[in-house]
Amino acid sequence: MTRQVTQDTPQEQPLLITVEQTAKLLSLGTTKTWELIAQEGLPVVRLGRAVRVNPKRLEKWVESRGK
């Protein structure tokens, strides 16, 4: 029997997301997202050549930009 996801069931958030996923979350293009990483300090995790974003840190970063 599988468990059905409902509003009461918390969905697991991935530990890291791609830059493309980050762009979608921010409603931005990937080029602008890369600019934010390079010029505005959007926090990333580098794993070799892979660049990932921690969703929790992304949320805090966005909140700090609104102040």
From TrEMBL:
Name under which the protein is recorded: Helix-turn-helix domain-containing protein
Domain Helix-turn-helix positions: 16-65
Domain of life the protein comes from: Bacteria
NCBIfam families hit by this protein: excise
Database matches in InterPro entries: HTH_17, SinI_DNA-bd
Originating organism: Reticulibacter mediterranei
Pfam families according to UniProt: HTH_17 (PF12728)
Entry GO MF terms: DNA binding
